[in-house]
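User: I want to check something. If I give you two sequences, will you return the structure for each one separately, not as a complex?

Assistant: Yes, each is folded on its own. Here is the first sequence with its structure:
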Amino acid sequence: MNQQIEALIYASEYGIGISEIKQVLESTTGTDIEEHMIEAALESIRVRYLQEEYVVELKTINNGYQFLTKQHYYQTVNQLQTHRAKKKLSQAALETLAIIAYRQPITKLEIEQIRGVNCDYSIQRLLEKELIKIVGKADSLGKPLLYGTSDLFMDHFGITNTAGLPKLKEIIQEDNAIGEISE
């Protein structure tokens, strides 16, 4: 039971409470589980993670249990967060990425025609971040490179292929009108 509880805490995006642990375990095992048994298991897990070999510890926050990094490693984790924050995409890069995702394979010229501006920097940033990749060369004059989304893009957005992208009609609002509506 300890390992099942540990797995629940690990898999939970937010803190998980005793009542939720109890419900999940009872539905999994088909047997009634006493709360004091869960509390004992949680205490056992908490004590085990206090050992120096573990970088995380079991904490109680707002009546929920979570694994959090031990205070000793806060500076290291903070550096990671700072490093990743610098990797955010600009609006131009997001627009370029969306065009590539929906129109792939696509050339830089085609992207620039859609956006109406030069896309060299955005494409370079997306390649550096490995969100797009070169998928070949077009048969047109000059054999321009064709771009498509990468496996990292698919992993990041939790889709297996481009069919998993939201349909454009689900995203675009139809109430784009100029002026006032006449009656």
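And separately, the second sequence with its own structure:
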Amino acid sequence: MKRLIATLLICSSVAAPALATLKAGDQAPTFTTQASLGGQVFSYSLADELKKGPVVLYFYPAAFTKGCTIEAHLFADAVDKYKALGATVIGVSADNIDTLNKFSVSECRSKFAVAADTDQKIMKSYDSMLLSKTSYADRVSYVIAPNGSIIYEYSSLDPDKHVANTLQALEQWTAKQKK
């Protein structure tokens, strides 16, 4: 019943505009939290991941809801393209780690990590809370350069363009780095 109510709240908020105050050029707040990849829990550090290359950080409202499942599938399908650009992907929601263990295997197809933000500290630091229900993340994607600056930000509750837009932003950034 709780999941149904959560899904209804998320679906009813589609008309609400997305709002993310962090923009290109802003410094991305660093964080460390529990995450799951392929059902295995580990400590995720954004600072450590940025040492390896750019990071695509995306926030989503709730695991196993329709839009979040679609988005997870799209990111999973594109992981090799991100890797080819030297980037990694991390999804963040307020879900607990037990839920994310299941989500990371079934919907993320064990291709990228998903992180638990049960106290909403990460969402708040990125101003990525759903306006109509601030205990849930909004659907916001960030591309973060290895130096910690935000390259690109995209906000839309529609999951369809997050992957295409972040890939395009990464491709443009990579091309500039080669010059």
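Because they were folded independently, the notes below concern the second chain alone. The CA atoms of residues 31 and 122 lie 7 Å apart. The longest strand covers residues 32-37.
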